[in-house]
Amino acid sequence: MAERRPRAAWRRQPEPPARTPRPEPQPSDPEAGAADRPSVVQATLYRDGRKVASPATLAETFRQLREYPDGMAWIGLHRPTESELHSLAGEFDLHELAVEDALEAHQRPKLERYGDTLFVVLRAARYLDAQEEVDFGELHIFVGRDFVITVRHSAAPDLSAVRHRMEENPDLLALGPEAVLYAILDAVVDGYAPVVAGVQNDIDEIETEVFSGDPAVSRRIYELSREMVEFQRATRPLVGMLHGLMAGFAKYGTDEELQRYLRDVADHVTHTSERVDGFRQALTEILTVNATLVTQQQNAEMRALAEAGFEQNEEIKKISSWAAILFAPTLVGTIYGMNFDNMPELHWAGGYPFAIVLMAVVCTSLYVIFKKRDWL
Predict the structure, then answer these.
(1) Measured between alpha carbons, how far apart are the two ends of the chain, in Å?
(2) Is 168 helix (H, G, I), strand (E, B) or coil?
């Protein structure tokens, strides 16, 4: 395996994989959109990598951008309305198909070029410790010659951190919209690391539960498997997308620093995609093992029930045999002991010995019969 390139100084270091609850977005966070806040989260104009204006409205953004022909606008939207997106489409000549995708959301990760504009769809992910599940978000990015438009439909990813990091490095931001796109890609891919750590911890817990015989583990395996399918859909297309961007380095004259940056991001997303594939395979194997253990447990329970039934039948046969043996002399003695004067052989001297012998013969015969049939 080739040695991984060291990250540049301006690049955000990955978060530690410790499973700590994530704080909810605070109102002071300009990129943390909420349902009751405007769709335009933040619009900023940059020139030579430095912020020159923060317009409050889209109209003001358009007007000020015309005043800075060599400037760049970075507009962040959170669940925009149709009129807002159409206004942006008219100003920046966005393709109607891309605008339609950004409005409808629920798109697969992809990269498409419409003339001079790139349209990128990303699926961000974050691990929710309290629920022990993976939450997925969707991000649409329009990248043009002098603008970057981000359209979020969920809380993730936190683009305010990307914006602050870029503003702290004006040399990087001066490289233009491509630098912003690559920084966002890096933030999304780095956000996968805590998810991978959380899922790995879940799989370790599931393995323990499987071998401890927890009956609820099957449902947990199924739910985590579905999340891994979704995670795979988010990460696997990114590999091809990044290689497509790298293929256009020479054609579009991409800065050498950004080329190194993109290669590093591609390396990380490839590693993440491989981990996700491994998780799916591991969960499939765990589910098979769990099914085998459940079957073995059921077989053991059925065997125990069968053995208990067999033992019960043996006891019943013994009780029935002894009851029949004891019933014979009782019947003979009861009839013989009846006090009837006209009963034949009642005053016979040999009647008592005959009755005793008859009872012994009957009991012995029944004992022998039951013994041969293994009832006794």
Answers:
(1) 75
(2) coil
Whole-angstrom CA distances from 255 to 79, 117, 175, 249 are 32, 18, 8, 8
CA distance 351 to 361: 15
Question: Distance between CA atoms of 198 and 132, rounded to whole angstroms?
Answer: 8
Calpha distance 41→157 (Å, rounded): 13
Instruction: Give the dihedral sign, CA 91/143/101/34.
Output: negative
The two three-digit tokens of residue 349, written as one number = 């001297």
* Cα dist from 192 to 123, 156, 232, whole Å: 10, 11, 11
CA distances from 210 to 202, 216, 297 (A): 12, 9, 12
Tell me the pLDDT tens digit for each residue of 194-248.
999 999 999 999 988 888 878 788 888 889 999 999 999 999 999 888 888 887 7
What are the E-state strand segments in 94-177? 110-114, 117-128, 133-143, 147-152
